[in-house]
Structure prediction request, 181 residues.
Amino acid sequence: MDFTIRALDAFPEPEFTSLRAAAFAGIGEESRLLTEVIADETERRTQARMSDPQFPHQLKIGAFFGDRIVGWSYSRGEDKTLHTINSGVLSEFRRQGIYSGLAKFTVSHASQNGFVKIVSRHSPGNNAIIIPKLRLGFVVSAFEYSEQYRPLVHLTYLVSQKRRELYQIRSTPITPISDPI
Ligand SMILES: CC(C)(COP(=O)(O)OP(=O)(O)OC[C@H]1O[C@@H](n2cnc3c(N)ncnc32)[C@H](O)[C@@H]1OP(=O)(O)O)[C@@H](O)C(=O)NCCC(=O)NCCS
Prediction:
């Protein structure tokens, strides 16, 4: 195909506006959908917060074997985000789905109370906590070097299913051009 590349003083209009709209069509639609989802989440969280008698918001949950507490998870709410601070299960009760149950409870609590996301920070080698969370739909959202805890991986669960779907689409790497020059 024959084409030429030229430097321009100004883009020709209205062709350029149409070209840009066509080239960004997919991206524009996703951005518009994301803006709508975020606006809806903000509204739901504001309503939930107004009716929340407990402020600052805290979630303390325990897993019981009979009357004995064998596991817990503790989260704190801040604005629209539920931060999971710590969780644990007694060693003899591990690998029986107890933590997965605690994490599912946290997800449904976040949803019912208008939180937009759940975030947590973990040592990157702690498979025992990272794997069950990834299975539930948490995603890796950041890395950090903490003076106190050293390397940390951040996990995030987006409460809205629509937002999870958009995250998946938007986080897919752009297909590279095989031979750009
Ligand atoms: C992390 C912890 C809470 C997990 O509790 P748990 O009740 O054993 O977790 P679950 O049984 O729900 O595990 C679900 C899945 O996670 C994965 N998993 C759990 N422990 C694992 C381990 N030690 N190594 C690799 N994968 C592991 C498995 O895929 C498991 O499913 P499976 O048993 O069917 O194979 C527990 O190991 C613990 O208390 N650790 C010490 C405290 C801690 O690290 N807390 C987190 C600090 S941020």
In short: The chain has a mean pLDDT of 90.
